[in-house]
Amino acid sequence: MASFPLLQVLLKCRFTRKRCGTKQPLKVLVTGAAGQVGYALIPMIARGLMLGPDQPIILHMLDIPSAAEALNGVKMELVDAALPLLKGVIATTDLVEACTGVNIAIMLGGFPRKEGMERKEVMSKNVAIYKDQASALEQCAAKNCKVLVVANPANTNALILKEFAPSIPAKNITCLTRLDHNRALGQIAERLNMHASEVKNVIIWGNHSSTQYPDINHATVITQEGEKSVREIIANDKWLSGEFITIIRQRGAAIIRARKLSSALSAASAACDHMHDWLLGTPKGTWVSMGVCSDGSYGIPPGLIYSFPVSCEKGEWSIVQGLKIDDFSRSKMEASTNELLEEKSLAYSCLS
């Protein structure tokens, strides 16, 4: 078990560097580490893009036995990169070894749907994977371990992990919808011939799937005259309520058609953004989208892992409250809720 809670480790020595020297290294687990997303993400983590330029880390990399040689190759490259923040690397196919003492777990590994496979078969395999990983984290991870599930179906995989790792606080288990959030920022910026940094407060509601709802009703852009609403600046409700939503929902498929491979670089960047903002905080007045455990906000059933707008401070997220939800938005949010309830039912049927 770690000597310090995660936030204490992150903040330790921030204001007393001369007295106490370097920070305590954080142990970061990446599952599916030999895959495309892992190969893109691991150098981002090791270079401090996720946890800051003064936070040393020890990487725990896990993959399946058939990927052991490739995983060792990744370890060799990390050694060759001579990265100052990287204080150690564990490359293993053993789940217990991988999970021991970790402060942060980024779960990239999962079973992808293959041609001809039934939905329940895919769900059954992922339920088994995430039940085992949950048990290992429950027994071996640091007490305040923060978990990000990336592998699809991300929301439901995170739900299973939450159910089978009861000692990990439910608020510490999240899933990735930051990729969809970033895609929405990018599409708005392209439409307005602006930079994505000038757009803020889009929202991804719901499931990381084709029912997700990219909502721009509260989004703003920075102009010379100050902040203005995205809907006002674009002035095209038909595009915003139609094509824009379709683009975000189908962006992953479009990238596969173009690359003949899935979106690894942008997924890795989004995972890095998710953890960075969660642990180090979001700018004042800005929110991001995270798949988190519902507390009933906006009428979403408690306990579901659902994407909400959140702000983050001191290593904790909070759902942004009081946003007005119109009838169009409510219908989209409910459709994603219903899909997640169906997925939950299917996942639980695989356990019995």
UniProtKB/TrEMBL annotation:
Gene Ontology MF annotations: L-malate dehydrogenase (NAD+) activity
Swiss-Prot/TrEMBL keywords: NAD, Oxidoreductase, Tricarboxylic acid cycle
EC number of the protein: 1.1.1.37
Domain Lactate/malate dehydrogenase N-terminal per the UniProt entry, residue ranges: 27-173
Protein name from the UniProt record: Malate dehydrogenase
Organism: Ananas comosus
Transmembrane spans: none
Family designation: Belongs to the LDH/MDH superfamily. MDH type 2 family.
CDD domains linked to this entry: MDH_cytoplasmic_cytosolic
Residue ranges of domain Lactate/malate dehydrogenase C-terminal in the record: 177-345
Residues the entry annotates as binding NAD(+): 32-38, 63, 126, 150-152
Superkingdom, taxonomy of origin: Eukaryota
Main EC class the enzyme belongs to: oxidoreductase
Residues forming the catalytic site: 208
Positions that bind substrate: 113, 119, 152, 183
Biological processes, Gene Ontology terms: malate metabolic process; tricarboxylic acid cycle
Catalyses which reaction(s): (S)-malate + NAD(+) = oxaloacetate + NADH + H(+)
Designated gene of the protein: LOC109715272
